[in-house]
């Protein structure tokens, strides 16, 4: 390689070495760990208190073993050994709350533990031995397996809460420290570097895997929520699509009638004036233009899966067809009762269509979600409009609501809001369900007066027994 190529590589290496302390500071100190919801908050892990109790019990047991590891065989337990063992166990428990700080504390306490062993190592036997074995720390001190377990536990709790790259950096530092201590204190009993590497690597892999599983479940919950919202939104759009198609048919019918009446009107008048003919011609042209524009704009709602041509020209259902609807529902096994109150009057097609669809969807929900229940449909003709009430009794058989259930309520609400009315839905005290819709209608003054007079007399009620 040329000198020109070596120079940039050397410069990058020097820059990386100079930036290593800052990178280490950002990765393993300044950047916070993943936040875990506290108890009482939404999505708080239910296993956290149980795990904390088990961790405390394990830390106390390891603390006793660690105290023995830091004290010479046959000698009294020293205060520094107890303090270091307690501090290391406390650092392990603190990893549940502050994993980064707890790992640093565990790493520093590993060095302090070695210093305690070096300071406490005697130079002669405190009591006579049967055999003449040379006094070495290997004879006086057991291997520090508990110390490795405490540091591995701190690394595991760190890997649970930080990104894998940060956990790997912590693993490298832990292994570098273990290598340094092994080289600097050869007489002391040391757990082999291979065993330390296995413990630390296992802790890292297990903690990273559990963190990935937790994040995957969190993402799955978010996706499930988004899917439910998208399903509700799609259902709402489909219902609006259907409503728009139906209203398109109703409006197109009335515009066609206006056009025909404007064309026929001059022939019904003897010697019509030119002004009358001109006005009627303008009405017909405006009606045809509005009809063409309506079909052009709302025609896009006729998707490729639109009904067949014969079905398109089928009259939209009205309240007169409720009897047929209830008859078909009864034939499916649902016990339905229909009652009508008030004086029936001609209603706008949109109102009758919405009332019919509300009853149809309500009965479908009863058959789907309340098996074995009976239903009652009440149609009330009022001075200010029409009321529709559908109730059902408690289901005889349990039928859990499937995901995305009750989306038909969205369509009912859309139809009611379109007419400026109100919709109320909810459970009944006896375990049933109720749907009540108020559809306002503006009647001519003469019709309204007749309706008020009719409601002043005893209400006429017709009931269709099941």
Describe it:
With about 475 residues, the chain is an alpha+beta fold. The chain is built from 14 helices and 6 strands. It has helices spanning about 5-30, 50-70, 80-95, 100-120, 135-140, 145-160, 165-185, 195-265, 275-300, 310, 320-330, 350-370, 410-420, 445-455, and strands at about 335-340, 375-380, 385-390, 420-425, 435-440, 460-465. A 6-stranded mixed beta sheet has the order 4-5-3-2-1-6. The model is unreliable at about 125-135, about 305-310, about 400-405 and about 445-465 (pLDDT under 50).
- The radius of gyration is 41 Å
Percent of residues in helical segments? 55-70%
Q: Mean pLDDT, as a whole number?
A: 76
Q: DSSP strand (E) fraction? A: 5-15%
Number of strand elements:
6
Q: What structural category do the secondary elements indicate?
A: alpha+beta
**Helical region count?**
14
What's the helix-strand series? Answer: HHHHHHHHHHHEHEEHEEHE
Largest sheet: 6 strands, mixed
